[in-house]
Amino acid sequence: MSYNSHRLRKHQRIHHMVMDDRRLNANQIANGVLLHQDNALAHKPVVAMATVRDCSFELVDHLPYSPYLAPSDYFLFPTRKRHMTGKQYRTDNEVVSAVEDFLEGQDENFYTTGIQALQHRCKKCMDRSGDYIEKKNTFGQV
What we know:
two-stranded parallel ribbon, Nucleotidyltransferase, domain 5, 6 helices
């Protein structure tokens, strides 16, 4: 089973657990949920797209060749890199565990900050009619 298939199954299980909670209905869960994904072929299979549709998520496409708008590139990776700098890992499993611990250890505000930066970056890109925006070395600044 591929990594993406595993993730898809995991997301489906989570979706079903939430759906089984009768305090919420599907419209309350999906109302306003935007799914931002890049255009990688791994994200475009029929099964993945059907799951997005079945969950009633609104898909926000990622412009090709635009790392400026990829939250992983401008937010998650640099922050995680700073967290892991200077540490040594003996195995791949130790690295995976360290990354998972880092991501799970972040509070809601951490992720909100990254999404708010995406809104700012999208507006800046639109203001420049989609022109490429050069990245500076300081976090969150362009």
